[in-house]
């Protein structure tokens, strides 16, 4: 057999093996996302889909109804962003480890709270025992623009040590809101 033909077959085999690996990873990610849903959520989704398909066959949902629903959802999202002050600009999730009853994912969030930009990276360990799912945050890393207030950097360091995301978001929301009030007040006196 000619050496060039042999090499072409080897290259084709290698390309197919790489494609298989990529497709396997995609499949595992899709399977993983579906395992995070509870039985109740799956049943609700099935009923919702059944209702949608029945509505489509009967012609209940027109494009104008869908447009109205989309506008309503956009209004709700806008209200929540205005109410909380959080505007998330990106989110990425990567599965680090997955077993039958344990999943480790690495998350990265970035955005702004009022005018303060932030980036949060953490690992989320989810374990499932007898119909009970528990989640633990670890390796928390918070990146914020350096502010003149040293208490903020102390708070960020303490939060990273504790791994308490909820406290971070609550405190950041309050701090950012009052930071804006202080900034507007000082601009008024200038």
TrEMBL record:
Keyword Metal-binding: no
InterPro entries from the UniProt entry: CENP-P
The keyword DNA-binding appears for this protein: no
Coiled coil: 6-33
Keyword tags: Coiled coil
Domain of life, per lineage: Eukaryota
A Pfam family matched in the record: CENP-P
Gene Ontology terms describing biological process: CENP-A containing chromatin assembly
Gene Ontology cellular component annotations, sorted alphabetically: chromosome, centromeric region; nucleus
Protein name: CENPP protein
